[in-house]
Amino acid sequence: MTLGSPQPTVQEGKATFAVGNAFYRPQSVIARDLAVLAAAVYRQRHGRLRVLDAMTGCGVRALRYGLEAGADFVWANEGNPDLAATLTDNLAPLPAATYRITHQDANQVFFACSQQRDLYDLVDIDNFGGPTPYVTTGLWATRLGGLLYLTSTDGRATSGHDPGGCLRTYGAYGRSHPAVHEQGLRLILGHAAQTAAARGLGLAPVFSLFTGQVHRVMVRLVSKPTLTEANYGFVAYCHGCGHFQTVDWRHLGRVSCVCESFQPGNAVPTASNLVLSGPMWLGPLHDGATLAAMAALAEGWNWPAQAKQLAIMAQEIDLPPYYYPLGELGRRGQMDIPNRDQLIAALQDRGHRAAIPSVDWQGVKTDATLGDCVAIAQAMATQSSSGPQRAPSEP
Ligand SMILES: C[S@@+](CC[C@H](N)C(=O)[O-])C[C@H]1O[C@@H](n2cnc3c(N)ncnc32)[C@H](O)[C@@H]1O
Ligand SMILES: [Zn+2]
Questions:
Q1: Which of 32, 127, 137, 149 for mutating ligand 1's site (highest number of atoms within 8 Å of CB)?
Q2: Rounded to an integer, what distance in angstroms lies between the CA atom of residue 48 and that of residue 119?
Q3: 94 and 35 in one domain?
Q4: Is there a domain that residue 345 lies in?
């Protein structure tokens, strides 16, 4: 124990801990909750869970993996040695043989793991900025079939506000458009899948989460590359008409927008204003079976908010890699913001797939075109006698 007056403590899940001088964001609790659920599911499936929490801060994750996910062993590493006393006190409730605390650079830890063939079932990397300096090395510490949890706080690069920075970080050009929150997840997944593929390995998404400022993806390391020409490509957005489309490598030189055909006889596109983002991951953001197992656990633990988040993620799995914010539909259709749930129901009635985008609960993710969405929303507005519809209030 450290001397002096006891520090105030925080409760999160089953963990009670002091923050001290560590960086700790209470708002990121959902990211830790989902990671604990995924880790607990992994423990159920494999009968084993060894975790490397490479940037542990005050140790909240290490503690929660131990107390809630039933981790057999947790390595809590934190680069800042000034947090040693806080970490030592916080992890004291765990049995002594089940954890270890170190203060090294995360990449040194990953090198050591690789050299000693000391591989982990879950490697959690909660960095500041982009995750790319830790992806190759993090893989060295992850066992085949194990999980890697990546973080990006670099929203400026992924949202098209710094495409050059995005290119340097992710090897992909990120442009600005209405679905950039999802783009952030797809850029991380694409970079990680390509990094693994270059080593003859594959990464399969487990879940992907955007919490307002931070993008996170949990992926599973598999023995064969998952990256293909079909699931790693480009998203095109037309600033002229608002239409999204995916573009594969073979058609990069022949991208045109639907709005060009609206002008008969006009051989040279004038109305469209296309931007291309990528390459990025175009495949599913989540694994349905794991989400279902996590949701069952969340129900059993009486975690309704987490179960709801997982249900929303599950519904978007097979939908296109972009979405339309409700405000954007209102602006394009020169109408009040449409009611989300009515619009989703109307799209489904007309045979489209439609769901709430997990990254923006004030939007619609669908295989319908923007034109279809606007037309349906306009018809809804005409039918409605009660004036402007209220937008859903939850994030
Ligand atoms: C975002 S905070 C971690 C928060 C913690 N995981 C949580 O959920 O509350 C990032 C932590 O990583 C540490 N860190 C940053 N770069 C590092 C590196 N290269 N190696 C090890 N630790 C690092 C920082 O000192 C900081 O405590
Ligand atoms: Zn267009």
A1: 127
A2: 13
A3: yes
A4: yes
- Chain segment 245-288, per-residue pLDDT in tens: 999 999 999 999 999 875 555 454 456 899 999 999 999 999 99
Q: How far is the CA of 58 from the centre of ligand 1 (A)?
A: 9
Based on the fold, state whether residues 79 and 204 are members of the same structural domain. yes
pLDDT category, 211, cuts 50, 70, 90? very high
Residue by residue, DSSP assigns 89-143 as HHHTTS-GGGEEEE-S-HHHHHHHHHHTT--EEEEE---SS-SGGGHHHHHHTEE
Q: How far is the CA of 345 from the centre of ligand 2 (A)?
A: 26
**116 and 147 together in one domain:** yes
Q: Return the CATH number at 362.
A: 3.30.56.70
What range does the domain containing 354 cover? Answer: 323-395
Structural domain total, the chain:
2
Asked, for residue 232, whether it belongs to a domain, the answer is no
> Are 98 and 218 members of one domain?
yes
Band the pLDDT of 383: cuts 50, 70, 90: confident
Q: Kindly state whether residue 371 falls inside one of the protein's structural domains.
A: yes
Average pLDDT over residues 216-227: 97
Spell out which residues line ligand 1, taking CB within 6 angstroms: 22-24, 32, 55-57, 60-61, 77-80, 105-106, 126-128
pLDDT digits over 78-90, tens only? 999 999 999 999 9
**Residue 268 is assigned to a structural domain of this protein:** no
63 is written with which tokens? 């503690």
Sheet holding 99-102, edge to edge: 99-102, 73-77, 50-53, 120-124, 142-152, 215-222, 202-210
256-295: b (≥16 Cβ within 10 Å) or e: ebebbeeeeeeeebeebebbbbbbbbbbbbbbeebbebbb
Q: How far apart are CA 287 and CA 281, in angstroms?
A: 14
Same domain, 327 and 222: no
Q: Is the pLDDT of residue 26 over 80?
A: yes
Taking the CA of 242 as reference, the closest ligand is 2
pTM of the model: 0.94
